Structures are given as structure tokens and as C-alpha cells.
Amino acid sequence: MIRHRAESGVRVLILLAIGTMAGAAAFTHVHDLTVAHGQPDWIGWANAVAVELMAIYLGLELRARRRAGRPVGLVGVLLVAFALLSLAAQVAEAEPSVWGWIVAAVPSLAFLALVKVVLSSPPAPAPEPDQPPVDWTSEVPAQAVTEPEPQQPTMPAPAVRPAPAAVLPPLGVVQPNRPQVVGIIR
């Protein structure tokens, strides 16, 4: 666990260092290119902020949309457009040679590669929300109460009369059509 946290910390530090240096280079190149083409200094910084932060924001938006299962087409196109705009500003400010262009593009390409790696990694699983302890002595919460399922109407059972019990005549009464048993009971 400690080793994992240390490794994650080093990764974040590397990402921040590259991001800071690439951002500074990209901001400076966009600013300088804007000013070199006749815009005031403050607009140069406004352009730099708009171009660079839009690329970062669009990368984050792309990831959020993927997680939510929403379409990413327009956001992806805009991300590529702003990244290319930043890269073009860096190349335009470089010495006009192949190596000048490559060296000028390295910070932006490194940052884009890191953003791609970070954004394409699966998000960490959300921690389980803490469940409140169950208090068995309290009343049942309202959401736990469920409605009983409706029962099918039942037909009333037919009335069944019990069979008549054999009624014995009182002692000493003679009944017709029955054989008479006379005996002595001791």
C-alpha cells in the first residue's frame, strides 16, 4: 500500500512538472505569436489562456462523457483542433528548420501524450459509501416499508354443514323399527 502511494505520488509529480513546463512553453509561444501578429500584450495572454486551458478542459470533458456513455464526437474534434492550434503556435515560433520545429513541438507533444495516457486509464473505482449502522430497536425507515402485494380475490368457500350427529334417544324410550336389545347390566 505504501509503495503504491509512493509510486502514484511520483507519477503525479512527473505529470505536474511536464505539464508546468509544457504549459509555460505553450503559453509563451501562443502569446508571442499573437503579439508578433499585431495584437496587444493582454490579448496575447488571453489567447494563450484560451487555447491551452480549452485543450485541458476538453480532455477532461471527453473523459467524463465516456464514463457517462454520452457521445464524444464534437468534444474530440474540438480537442484535436485546440491541440493542433497550440502545436502550430509552438512550431511557428521555432527556428525555420526541421530540428527547430521538432524541438519546439516536444513540450506540447509530451504534454499531449501524458494527457492521453492519463485520460485513457480507467478511473479508480468509487469507494463504497459508508452504510449507517443498523439500529434494530428503532422504527423501520419509511423507504424500507413496502406496500403489500395485491391479492387475487378469492371465492368464498361453499358453506358445508356438518353431518347430523347420531342422536340417541333418552334411556328407556322405545323406538319403532329398531330391534330391542334387552339385557341386564350389572
Summary tags:
186 residues; mainly alpha; 57% helix; 0% strand; rod-shaped
Q: How many separate helices?
A: 4
What profile does the largest beta sheet have?
none
What is the CA-CA span between the terminal residues?
Answer: 100 Å
Q: Report the sheet-strand fraction.
A: under 5%
Order of helices and strands: HHHH
* Helical proportion, percent range: 55-70%
Low confidence ranges: none
Shape: rod-shaped
Number of strands: 0
The chain-level mean pLDDT equals 76
Backbone structural class: mainly alpha
Radius of gyration: 44 Å
Describe the structure.
It is built from four helices and no strands. With 186 residues, the chain is mostly helical. 16% of the residues are buried. The mean pLDDT is 76.
Topology:
Layout: H1 2-36, H2 41-68, H3 73-92, H4 98-120
Helix pairs in contact: 1-2, 1-3, 1-4, 2-3, 2-4, 3-4
State the gist of this model.
The protein is mostly helical and 186 residues long.
